[in-house]
Amino acid sequence: MENIETRFDPYEILGLPHATSMKLVRAAYKTLIRAYHPDVYRGNKEYGELRLKEFVEAFAFLKDFKRKLEFDSKITDDEEGFQSQGFKPKPNLYEFKNATNVLREDWEFACDYHPEIQNFYLKLKKIDHNIALAFMALLVREKCYDKAEKISSDLEKKFLVSKFGDDPVLRKIAKHAILEGELAYALQLNKAVRILGINSKYRILFKLAKDYPGFGTELLKKHAPSFYIKYMHSNAETREFWVVSIFILLFACLILTGIIF
Q1: Would you state the torsion angle of the CA atoms of residues 11, 13, 16, 21, taken in this order, to the nearest 10 degrees?
Q2: What pLDDT, on a 0 to 100 scale, did the predictor assign at position 254?
Q3: Which residues 6+ apart lie within 8 Å of 173 measured at CB?
Q4: What is the pTM of this model?
Q5: Alpha helix (H) ranges present in the chain?
Q6: Quick check: 71 and 30 in contact, CB under 8 A?
Q7: Which of 30, 96, 124, 182 could be a cystine partner for 132, CB 3.0 to 4.6 Å?
Q8: Binning pLDDT at 50, 70 and 90, where does residue 47 land?
Q9: Does residue 252 have a pLDDT over 90?
Q10: Which of 201, 209, 200 minimizes the C-alpha distance to 235?
């Protein structure tokens, strides 16, 4: 299996979920390029040049229809989720601020006429800064404000699928964890999906419930009630086993010390 840490992912470089449209790719690329333009960017020059190079390479790859199609097909065929993107809860806030500033004037003007788009943006931002930026970039550059709700919903789903696999239970659990700020849980879930695959989801959730006994158990109860029952039954059997074992051990000690018989 290809190394999940070192493989080239042009979408991830542009802060996008897998298999997004070329309109979204182009909007994100143009925004990021402007954010790192020498007349705008005031950070480390070498880092800025490196980021520009990465953006150019990623865009060149994705604008090649054949290469994009082959890459997207490989991701689509990966039903287990082994090719999932890494979950990175700490955003590059400096890059995010510069990129949103590029769009700020047009965005604020548009919000006067479509105030609902700001709410969609803020909801996405709670999940991930990059998809919130992509949402803003697409609306501003393609002037598709009337489709904001659908675009927002599609971006959220693509993000969750790209990070946690195409399984509805895992997506709901991942979203819940992120919104509740349980980022360590979300990180472990992302890593488990990438290494074990979504067909191991119940083993993954079982382990996470043990590692995060309060939060993990509540997630099972809310989003996977059938497995929650199995998990609690298993725990009850384990507790019963240890109670019986301790009782037998104590009884044996009493016999050996002559207290009984």
Answers
A1: -40
A2: 56
A3: 189, 205, 219, 223, 224
A4: 0.85
A5: 10-13, 22-35, 45-63, 65-77, 93-113, 116-127, 129-142, 148-164, 168-179, 183-196, 201-211, 215-223, 225-256
A6: no
A7: 124
A8: very high
A9: no
A10: 209
Q: Which amino acid is at 78?
A: D
Lookup result for tokens 């090649």:
64
Q: Which two three-digit tokens encode residue 81? A: 């989720």
Residue 78, Cβ density class (10 Å: 0-12 exposed, 13-18 middle, ≥19 buried): middle
| Residues contacting 96, CB < 8 A, separation 6+ | 129, 130, 133
Residue that has been written with the tokens 């996977």 in this structure: 224
Cα-based angle 181, 227, 214 (whole degrees, multiple of 5): 35
Asked if 253 and 246 count as a contact pair (C-beta separation under 8 A), the reply is: no
C-alpha span between 241 and 204 (Å, rounded): 24
Q: 198 and 170 in contact (C-beta within 8 Å)?
A: yes
- Rounded to 5 degrees, φ, ψ at 44 are -60, 125
pLDDT at 250: 59
- The token duo for 169 is 């239970």
Judged by phi (left if over 0) then psi (alpha if -120 to 50, else beta), residue 83 lies in alpha
* Residue pair 131/155 in contact by the 8 Å Cβ criterion: yes
Angle at 81 between CA 229 and CA 206, to 5 degrees: 20
